[in-house]
Structures are given as C-alpha cells and as structure tokens.
Amino acid sequence: MIKLIASDMDGTLLNDQMQVPTANIAAIQKAQAQGIEFITATGRGMSHAKISLDEADIHVPMILLNGAHVVNAERETIFTIPIGKEKTFEVMDAIEEAGLYYEIFTAEHVYSSNQPKRIEFFSEHIIDKIPGISKKMAIAASSRHLSLTPITFVEDMRQTLIDKEEDVLKIIAFDKNGPEQLKAITGELEKIGDLAIAASELTNIEINHVDAQKGIALKQFAEERGFSADQVMALGDNFNDVSMLTYAGTSVAMGNAVDAIKKIAKHVTDTNEENGVATAIDRILSE
C-alpha cells in the first residue's frame, strides 16, 4: 500500500503555465484524506518553489534543489548538503571557460551576475514552449516572470560568495543548443569529482554535491517515517528525477517525459497538461 507520494514540479505537478491544476490539487487532498503523505521533489529553491505551491494552497514537505535542501511542511530546514566553497569555485571556472550563463543557489538566495542574459535565455525558452508567440511578447513574459521569482543580481559572483556566509547548494548552467553543447562541459565537471550532474531541461545542467539527489533525500525522508521503498510512489519527467524513480517501488513517468525516463519508470501517466499527476494518484487510490 502506498503511504508516501513524491512528485517533481516543473513538467509534472505544474502545467506549462507554472500552475498546479485544480485536478492535481483535488487528487493530493484526496490522498491526504486517506492518510497518504505528499512531498514535492524539485530542482527549484525555496523562494521559487513556494510561489506555485502557495497559489494552490499546498503546504507539504519539500525536497528542494535536487535533494540539497529538505524542509518540513512548515518550511523549516531538516538538512542541507552543500557543494563546498572550493569545489564551487572549480565548477564556476569550468562553466565560465565554456562561456555559459549560470546561476548559483543557496538556501536563501538565487544569485546571477547577468540579468540581460537571463532574460534573453528565458525568452527564447518561452518561444520554444509557445509556438507563434512573438519575440517581443516572449521578452515581456520573461521579464514579468523575473519580477515574480526572487533572484539577486550581483556584479561579482565570487566576491559575493566570499562575503556571504551561505553554503552553495546547487549551480545551474544553461545553453540553448542543448545536450550536444552541454556534453563537453559535463565531461569537464565530472573530472572535478564528488558531483551529481543532471538536467531538468534539455537546455541545462544542474550541479550538486554527489550526495544531494532526489532519490537519496526521498529515501531518507521515507525511512524516518518507517516507510519502505515499496510504500513510495514517485512521479517525474526528466533526468534529475532518475534517482527517485529508481528508488520508489511505484515509479511513474509523465506522458511528456523524455523517452529515457519512460523506460526507467514502471508506469506512464498522462502529460502535465492533462493532469497526469491526478490520473496517477486516482489510479493508486482506486487500487
């Protein structure tokens, strides 16, 4: 019997408008009413994750930053797994040498040193997601999204990290040309060692400490509650979900998931635009 459901957010729990559909909210509430716990597992940091969840009035534990930060339903930190300052600087050196735009996540902040580059990248991402939208509208949408998602722009990323007493929990690098372009930098980062390198989109790579993975965090969270892997269901759509889909006894890929994730998962549900999370939860409850 399932006692814990873990769901990725982007491309899974959220639709393409970055909202939790009403059907998904109702399914979560139905599961909770039957004594099943629900936890989100996302690459997002707290400040970004809570925006969509607060809009949906969902207050549950969260695995954040791919497992580097875990909080309870009151959003109090349970534990963090930092990359380490010295290794962070090595990663930054490699990314900058490759000429990629990147952002750095701590428990409290998201840091960037290039606001125009961020708007440019995300406007192009919106154009890919919404065929027919003009570049001007995409830039406006990207700027509006930027105003809603807390991010701190700094002149000198290294000096900021030296001055601030905050642990770096995740680094994300972007390239609009996708996997082929990111393959080279991934190889360089793997040489550094003790890093987990995954992706939440084809156009990014996410770098964490090797022990900061969704599956590891989910396993620890479940075991603290006395749940076995067979009592856990996990839902996801992309490569940073692999570890938790591999761990969970019931693994579900979204209909919009990349093919490799569909092969790993034991089940495939509807897409995130078709309320696939609700479909999967309803099926489990009916069984």
Number of E-state strands:
14
Tell me what portion of residues adopts beta-strand conformation.
15-25%
Q: What overall form do the CA principal axes indicate?
A: globular
Oligomer: single chain
Helix content: 40-55%
- Helix-strand makeup class: alpha/beta
**Mean pLDDT over the full residue set:** 91
Walk me through what this model shows:
The chain is an alpha/beta fold. 43% of the residues lie in helices and 19% in strands. The chain contains twelve helices and 14 strands. It has helices at 9-13, 22-33, 46-55, 85-97, 115-129, 135-148, 157-163, 179-192, 214-224, 242-247, 259-264, 276-286, and strands spanning 4-7, 37-41, 62-64, 69-71, 77-80, 101-105, 110-112, 152-153, 170-174, 195-198, 204-209, 232-236, 250-253, 267-268. An eight-stranded mixed β-sheet has the order 5-4-3-2-1-12-13-14, sandwiched between helices. The chain is globular and about 55 Å long. The protein starts with a strand and ends with a helix. The mean pLDDT is 91.
